[in-house]
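Recall from the previous lesson that a structure prediction takes nothing but the amino acid sequence as input. Here we apply that procedure to WecB/TagA/CpsF family glycosyltransferase from Deinococcus lacus. The sequence below is the only information supplied.
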Amino acid sequence: MSAFPSRLSLMGFPLDAPSLPQTLDLLSDWMFGPRRGHTVVTLNPEFIVQARSQPDFARALAQADLVTADGIGIVWAARQLLGQDVPRAPGVDIARGLLQRHGPELRVYFLGGQPGVAERAAQEAFHDFGTQVAGHHHGYFGPEEDSRVIEAIAATRPHLLLTGMGAARQELFNERCKAAADVPVLLGCGGTLDVLAGTAQLAPAWTRRAGLEFAWRIASDRRRWGRAPRLAEFVRLVLREKSRQGR
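The prediction returns the following tokens.
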């Protein structure tokens, strides 16, 4: 982490500021270096809103080895509250970047999504990048089954675990897996498995350049409409904190 600026604190939560290339370099070192677990959080506004009322989630964020800015909302908040411009390193770009960079030398376990999604994502990664598929498992299981799934993951000895089970659930699982399994990098990546599997569309390039992909996803997918209030709550919290700081 010495190559990056010091860890920031955004609304009481950690935020590192590596660019996407720096993130890929660091995770590559971790994946192929000494086998020690590192958790990676791709922070978005929803995480901060949820973690404010979920102590276990907040603890998992604080304990993460790397926290990148996933959404444009985090970039905006850092500019408003810290006066700093932080680069984005979204989960989908991190995952695809690692798959593309390392190809057949990379061994990956795919975890999350509805039944069939992780399997399809693994198949597509093998087809597109030659990725070694350590294993796959859907995300429809409860915490009482975590130990069984962690044992299955540990037995495959992957370099990388892609965990797409939604905010909080994936971060809490990865923290537990980090302590119990020999996985160098554990990346919470939300809907990335759906993108890899082709069951969800990647936002158009122009929305990603403009930082509007979250709005595009809400508008194009009714299942996401229920998440919009959290974004509004995040904006309210940032503006309230900015007013308190006198900025």
